[in-house]
Design a protein that fits this description.
Blueprint lengths: L2 E4 L5 E4 L4 H9 L12 E6 L4 E6 L6 E5 L7 E3 L4 H12 L3 H5 L4 E2 L4
Antiparallel strand pairs: 1-2, 1-3, 3-4, 4-5, 5-6, 6-7
Helix pairs in contact: 1-2
């Protein structure tokens, strides 16, 4: 199973396995230039299913779950700290996207 990462300023990388250090680097980008709302998110997507998790900069702790390949409605959580965001990304990279989708999420993008 492969994964795609979308970094804060649009760089993309592909991975068969995503190390913890790479996930930490991905999230650390959200702590630089915190006023740059145009480039305010990073993503991990599961290549086979199209499901992805986006973590957003800012104090809201916004995380979005969506499928870029289907018409499934996106969902979100707010109040997610960095440790919880890391855990979500780690679980997704470990193949637990289906279980994550079954957890408590609110409909929409959270805007």
């Amino acid at each position: 199973m492969g994964f795609s990462l979308i970094w804060r300023y649009g760089e993309q990388s592909s991975h068969e396995r995503v190390p913890d250090g790479t996930l930490r680097e991905l999230l650390a980008e959200l702590d630089v230039n915190v006023d740059d709302v145009e480039h305010g998110d990073v993503w991990l997507s599961e290549d086979d299913s199209g499901w992805g998790i986006g973590v957003f900069a800012g104090g809201r702790g916004l995380v979005v779950l969506e499928n870029s390949e289907t018409a499934d409605e996106p969902s979100h959580r707010v109040g997610v700290g960095r440790a919880e965001a890391f855990a979500l990304l780690r679980r997704a990279a470990d193949g637990e996207m289906e279980a994550i989708r079954g957890e408590d999420w609110q409909p929409g993008y959270g805007s």
